[in-house]
């Protein structure tokens, strides 16, 4: 059996496989780490980076209306923690297309069993891993390499009036970043602490 025939058989198996993506739910309900299944040969590999059908089978939002790209010059650049409030709340699908990032989300759903808890996932151009971030989460990341690109698809258009931010080093979350930020915007440095937000809203 020659190499070409083996490749043909492998492709048939891949094509007939029902699932081409691996969905792993995190400890934060509704948030998923997504990996691709690879069909490899001497040329490299082929994989599926998105499949509406498979997303829907896991109950995930597929109404991705906008895709954004963020380029970062330096390792240690921190962006976050960002979210939009209802009725402009958004789900995000995040991937790193060049370099590497430490991607962080915080569960800010008041009724959630994991309210105020966070997770961090390393997304790199080499691991092709994605993070699915549901509505009600704050999101941010730190670059682990120079010249890192991040692409994120969202289910709601940008609405300036609904934009909110939380402090990257808020003790209420105690996020364990891999290093101190080298670059962070003035805006992100001035996001309020959760305690302040709750006091202003009359919750505390």
From TrEMBL:
Family matches, as CDD domains: cupin_RmlC
Entry annotation: catalytic residues: 82, 152
Transferase in keyword set: no
CC terms in the record's Gene Ontology section: cytosol
Sites marked Participates in a stacking interaction with the thymidine ring of dTDP-4-oxo-6-deoxyglucose: 158
Gene3D superfamilies the record matches: Jelly Rolls (2.60.120.10)
One Pfam short name: dTDP_sugar_isom
Pathway membership: Carbohydrate biosynthesis; dTDP-L-rhamnose biosynthesis
BP GO annotations: dTDP-rhamnose biosynthetic process; polysaccharide biosynthetic process
Domain of life according to the entry: Bacteria
Molecular functions per Gene Ontology: dTDP-4-dehydrorhamnose 3,5-epimerase activity
Catalytic activity: dTDP-4-dehydro-6-deoxy-alpha-D-glucose = dTDP-4-dehydro-beta-L-rhamnose
Enzyme Commission code(s) on record: 5.1.3.13
Assigned keywords, A-Z: Isomerase
Cross-referenced PANTHER family: DTDP-6-DEOXY-D-GLUCOSE-3,5 EPIMERASE (PTHR21047), THYMIDINE DIPHOSPHO-4-KETO-RHAMNOSE 3,5-EPIMERASE (PTHR21047:SF2)
Complex and partners: Homodimer.
Family: Belongs to the dTDP-4-dehydrorhamnose 3,5-epimerase family.
Function: Catalyzes the epimerization of the C3' and C5'positions of dTDP-6-deoxy-D-xylo-4-hexulose, forming dTDP-6-deoxy-L-lyxo-4-hexulose.
Protein name: dTDP-4-dehydrorhamnose 3,5-epimerase
Species for this entry: Pontibacter indicus
């Amino acid at each position: 059996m020659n190499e070409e025939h083996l490749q043909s058989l492998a492709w048939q198996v891949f094509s007939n496989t029902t699932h081409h993506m691996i969905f792993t739910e995190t400890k934060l309900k509704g948030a998923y780490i997504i990996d691709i299944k690879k069909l490899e040969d001497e040329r490299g590999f082929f994989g599926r980076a998105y499949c509406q059908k498979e997303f829907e089978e896991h109950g995930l939002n597929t109404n991705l209306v906008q895709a954004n790209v963020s380029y970062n010059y330096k390792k240690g650049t921190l962006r976050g923690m960002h979210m939009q409030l209802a009725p402009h709340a958004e789900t995000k699908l995040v991937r790193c297309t060049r370099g590497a990032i430490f991607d962080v989300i915080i569960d800010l759903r008041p009724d959630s069993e994991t309210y105020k808890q966070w997770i961090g996932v390393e997304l790199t151009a080499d691991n092709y891993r994605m993070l699915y971030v549901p509505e009600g989460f704050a999101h941010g990341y730190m670059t682990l390499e120079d010249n890192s690109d991040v692409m994120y698809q969202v289910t709601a258009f940008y609405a300036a009036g609904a934009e909110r931010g939380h402090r990257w080093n808020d003790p209420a979350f105690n996020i364990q970043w891999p290093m101190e930020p080298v670059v962070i915007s003035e805006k992100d440095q001035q996001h309020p602490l959760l305690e302040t937000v709750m006091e202003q809203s009359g919750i505390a």
